[in-house]
Amino acid sequence: MINVRALVALLALSAMTMSVVPLVSAEAGTEGPVEEVAIDLEGAWRFSTGDEDAWADPDFDDSAWEEVQVPTDGGQDVFDDYDGFAWFRLAFDLPAGIDGVNLAASLGFIDDADIAYLNGVEIGRTGVMPPDSDSQWFERRLYPVPAEAPVVGGRNVLAVRINDFTGGGGWYRGPVGLFSKTSLREVVYGITGSPADAATTATVTELLATQADALADGDLDAFEATLTDGYVHDGRDTDRRRRELAGWLAESDGTLVLTDAEVEIIRADDGRLLVDTNRSITGTRDGEPFAFQPVTQEFLVIDPVTGLEAGNHSRFFRDLVEPGVEGKRREYVVYLPPSYYEAPDHRFPTVYLLHGINGGSREWEPRDFQARLDELFTTGGLAESIVVMPDGESLWYIDSSVTPWRSMFIDEMLPQVDAEYRTLPERAFRGLSGVSMGGHGAFTVGWSNPDLFSSIASHMGALSLPPLVGDADEMAANADEAPLVQVTGHTPAFLSSFAYFFDACADDDFRFGEAVEAMDGQLTAKMVEHTAIVYPEGRHNDDCWLPRIDASFGLHSDSFRAAGLVEPPPVEGLDVRRLAGPDRIATSVAMSVEGWEAADAAVLASAADFPDALTAGPLAMAVDGPLLLSAPDALSTPVADELARLDVATVYLAGGQQALSAAVEVELTARGYEVVRLAGEERTATARAIAERIVALRGDAETVVLARSDAFADALAASSVAATGVVPVLLTGSDALSETTGQALADLLPEGATVVLAGGDAALSPAVEQAVTDAGFVADRRGGDDRWATAAALRAAAGERGGGGLDPLVLASGTAFPDALGAGVLAARLGGGLLLVDPSDLDASPASAAALDGAAPDRVLVAGGPAAISDRVLEQVRAALAG
């Protein structure tokens, strides 16, 4: 491929060490023990350029090969100056006792094509090797492992043959490992949870069977009856889903086969009821078997009250144009802006984003483009827009002998987008952006359709080249299709009817910086307003353009607003904003950015586990700095960048080396920070160490909050309330006051001081309360019938001490710990309050819903994206505050 990526960091979850954990099967209709497997294969691999069939053999001696890191951000350095075949090999042991476990190999992302072998058995391939090369550098590699391939309880060799076509390449992103299904779901998709109970499993299994029977019978009324009134899944509401299925049924003689395989029904930790399924819908087209929906791993969202499918309400998903002028399907990816579901009657402008050569519509997914666009349209202040990312292969966005791509785009894709999404279907509210080949396309498509588009943006655009598609004669005939040639034939009046932004880097591998300068000269000579930039450093890669999308989307935003764009109004003047990133680590950074322009100190906790992090909130307030989350085994890049922005001097580490490894501490020290680790031999001792530091910083404590050490529900609320008053949090077992904590109370508190017990008798037993009383303290139990009622009781306790207000109101999920940790500190920092809610339905957290009665915050800050707190909950919160 041409574009060498410098992609965002790997989704930070827990440290992926090898684990084999028994759990209960969640397969629909079955129960029984299976083994859960998560084997991390990232690290040093053997590597060689070249290509020999024998290198797939597990017995091949690769000891003379060099070692490289897998994955390497941006790809291994050797591919900067090498195109061709190369092999990676790794020998590892599989533990005994996992016979019969269905394993999948996650190989992350590889540029450009690969074939993977486990012990000489091919387990999967992506892309096409020469001579018919087809790059799939943007596709996630997930390969099911055949039962005969692994050697359980012995030595295994994974060998991966790759071919890099052009530009940089290699193995550039993970996760890399062998996983059973549940582990794969957590590591790759960030979804954690537990199997649904038997009754729920039976109900959902019946729902899936009803859907399959309905399509087999061609009964769309029966299928629609399985969907909620507000159903939206990957952009398809009930009406569109019905129309889509009706079309497929008409082609398939009135019957379709819906298959759900490897089904697991889970209660996700974020509160959703999910069906993890490999779903397909097949039938016939033109009398031949056809997969209308090829096998795809899907996560179906089920309404826990009605038992019907509710849809994922995704804002970033794949769509397609059915066969028309091209005679085949054409995929495109859709991004819906943050207010799309919150403002259901509003229409939005549209930007069409065109990729580079050897790319595809899916290349925006590994670039985490939803999070990047969300940031532009929220904290970045740009006009919210729908963004459509068509698949253009290497077709240069023209009609050619290969395929009439541009006719499909203009005559089929654009009308479909305008019909199915709430666009503003006018020239003034459509823009084109492109990268490399896509920059070429933005100019040529825009200039060829002046009645459809009003703004053109290009990053590293191939403005000097004609379309390089078709045979030699065709390319020669298209020589005048280069934008630098076309611009000479257009009048100043025509050219001035568009807004322009285009850029490149000075050391562009294809000299497109010179093309920018030439286009700048042409437009300047014709007195056409534009913005052209050649950056003094950088090559033809993601580092050149990806950090600068604010400029290209800023162009479109300015153009739309100048045309009189009406933007979604706030509800009754209420400012509601999400503070979110692509993962829990980036979300903690977003909350830090919201609350602090600078700080002398910051607190760092593990993103992988809750105990140490729960007690760190009051410490963050004691040092007047944010609470940031990092991967346990290495300092996460977004965190390192945020510490630099804050210009901190001291970083406090919450927990021992299991929570945050020595490598994290070493890197922080190397960056010049004073590092203070607060840790004990176990979680109660770490809580004591943190409490002692708070007392040392802020003076003697008059109150301590006591929470259960082995569950986060009540402790999460306790931590946020404690942060408000900078009150230490101590942990104990639920049945008896731990010796460490009892001694900490005696050392930290004067006799007669108050110990707030977080939770009811089930959380902290009467024996714990009696032990607190016997030690000479006042036990103030704050609990309720569920986690929401306990959180309300703890907020009331804070109110009695001068805190607990809800302006600003900070919302966080009460069913998962990561986002709420930093949110509690942010709420305290801003003088507001944290409200923990059910992530999918406000009414499922009744005490939290009741807390909104009479509340009148000027703004609402939401910790996390729609997967953390759904758009539905935000609609419910808006309605409650408006009422």
From TrEMBL:
It comes from the Bacteria. Transmembrane segments: none annotated. Residues 1-26 form the signal peptide. The keyword Acyltransferase does not apply. Keywords: Signal. The keyword Signal applies. This is N-acetylmuramoyl-L-alanine amidase. It comes from Euzebya pacifica. The lineage of its organism: Bacteria, Bacillati, Actinomycetota, Nitriliruptoria, Euzebyales.
